[in-house]
Amino acid sequence: MKTANGESVLGRVVRIFEVFGSEVTALGVSELARRADLHVATASRLVERLVGYGWLQRDEDRKVRIGVRLWELAARASPTLPLRETAMPFMEDLHAVVGHHTQLGVLEGDEVLFLERLSSRKAVINLTRIAGRLPLHASSSGQVLLAFAPAELQQRILDGPLRAYTPATPTDPKKLRTRLAAIRRDGYALCPGYIDEAATGIAVPVRAPDGEVVAALGVVVPNDANARMQVPALRAAALGISRSLIR
Amino acid sequence: MKTANGESVLGRVVRIFEVFGSEVTALGVSELARRADLHVATASRLVERLVGYGWLQRDEDRKVRIGVRLWELAARASPTLPLRETAMPFMEDLHAVVGHHTQLGVLEGDEVLFLERLSSRKAVINLTRIAGRLPLHASSSGQVLLAFAPAELQQRILDGPLRAYTPATPTDPKKLRTRLAAIRRDGYALCPGYIDEAATGIAVPVRAPDGEVVAALGVVVPNDANARMQVPALRAAALGISRSLIR
């Protein structure tokens, strides 16, 4: 259980944190140990130490949660904070105009990771969460990022598997490749019902001053004939963000 | 340098992350080692492992940064995310009406930690940053949180030291105690020039359904006679957040 070089300690700590997610925000130590595949005694000792550093915290009912201190450490120096802070005023304006979920995503591994989401209480269903992920082939933000991604990544995604969320999700690699070319040509991705039949995702690229696509700006609106109307507002907001980005 | 129980490894990892902040977002390994008080070889080995887990990442120029993966892990299950997500629509509306920095802070240790800040490009100076901190005695959000904090914490803060940012910063414990009573009575803190002479901070408490103060909602406006006009909009927004909070 113990190692001289400490590698394993770090690995176990990482496993503990990987257990938590948007659906799993608080756990008892034994359940945490089970999910992290650790002995209860080992997990218990590490949790105690991590609580001491504020990286984990305990509820009144003794359940363990992510510590506010860890969020603080990760957020204050996050490499994505400048992008997110630059984008926010434009996202607020876009959100006010469109009146539906507005989100900013970046490529992280083989998925889109959402840095921010502005929501409306009455808006359409949206599977996106802050710090949540969606697959590149199925979401509008993902398709935008994939369309401008390196050829190797495109090939890996096209090689599948391409999960179908609804009958409308594109799962044919040839058709998906054609779609990506269209997104590069048109400058936006419109995805009616690809993830949920009631919703249409629309996304556009956000470019750094050197032209590189660094993020996708998207909205999720009802799946109806009006969805396409939002494209100009999205493109204008993305251009505003790009103009404000300092490298 | 190595320990059998791994305690020290975890302590070193924590020291590495503590080095990063809003002013220090990227560092070479030797500088990182120096600031974390570690041997370069030790730091180098740990950085390598942390890069492998995505908790740190390397720039093109080999500098080390906080990894997007760590932000993701900390943010997706953060205990403060529900509060922040509930508050955001109200904060957006408040921001649109007030036209100046709008922020949400919570009590963390002996300071206020800001979970969110909505900024305007043309707005007045503001020392607040997302995941940044300010002292309880000098900031409007801090004074609100302090006014409703347990007596022990109030006493500890009043015992000082109470740093003066400007000649207007309250540093007399007796006067500060009177101020806290006034904040409890009036339901808001108005802090003209306490942190920067050009700015006035105004904050109000956000209460959970059980009445407990869980956050402070604040704005930072120019230090002039109009500042007090923002109080009703702030109070209405805070009531809206409280009504939407589910325990």
UniProtKB/TrEMBL annotation, chains A, B:
Q: Which SUPFAM superfamilies match?
A: GAF domain-like, Winged helix' DNA-binding domain
Q: Name one GO molecular function term.
A: DNA-binding transcription factor activity
Question: What's a Pfam family in this record?
Answer: HTH_IclR
Gene3D superfamilies linked to this entry? 3.30.450.40, Winged helix-like DNA-binding domain superfamily/Winged helix DNA-binding domain (1.10.10.10)
- Keywords of this entry: DNA-binding, Transcription, Transcription regulation
Q: Can you supply a Gene Ontology BP term from the record?
A: negative regulation of DNA-templated transcription
Residue ranges of every copy of the IclR-ED domain listed in the record: 69-247
Q: Which domain of life is it from?
A: Bacteria
Q: Which residues form the HTH iclR-type domain?
A: 7-68
The reply to whether Transcription regulation figures as a keyword in the UniProt entry is: yes
The yes or no answer to whether the keyword Transport is present is no
The record's listing under PANTHER family reads: HELIX-TURN-HELIX TRANSCRIPTIONAL REGULATOR, ICLR FAMILY (PTHR30136), HTH-TYPE TRANSCRIPTIONAL REPRESSOR ALLR (PTHR30136:SF24)
According to UniProt, the name of this protein is: IclR family transcriptional regulator
